[in-house]
Amino acid sequence: MAENEKIQKTLQTCFACGVCSASCPARRFSDEFNPVKITRLILLGYKNELVKSPTIWLCAKCNACIERCPRGVAFVDVIIELQNEAVREGIVSDQLKMAAKNLLENGWLYRLSDSDEARAEMGLSPSPKADVEAVKKLAKRRDFNKFREE
Ligand code: SF4
Ligand code: SF4
To answer: Whole-model pTM?
Structure first.
């Protein structure tokens, strides 16, 4: 079954109770990000508009919506498909570009070197080094460079 059809089928079981939105930590910090609204918009045919919206990148993938949904809707899969579709269309969030840049430069998603000073103050050794060459090799095989920040 195509991904699009799978999502439509999943969402058709949603009865708009709003439990996902009430449970969502991203929702607490953003008036724009609202899981139940996103499910409705997809069912009403606004998927393409959502793909272009920066809102879809706010999901923290914490799974709280899935754990509490009385209908077993895998909402995170819906968000991931929207994000995948966005990337296929060349729309990549700034946060993702930054994470990709860090990954390709030092092998970590975050700049761990920033924390070395704090670690030293606490008597801890510097952050472990990642195998950057291995990461670059993998990134090349997965055509990962398109995520990179310009
Ligand atoms: S909790 Fe589940 S059924 Fe309720 S609105 Fe969210 S996705 Fe739909
Ligand atoms: S997985 Fe995303 S949508 Fe679901 S509760 Fe967590 S932040 Fe909200």
So the answer is: 0.80
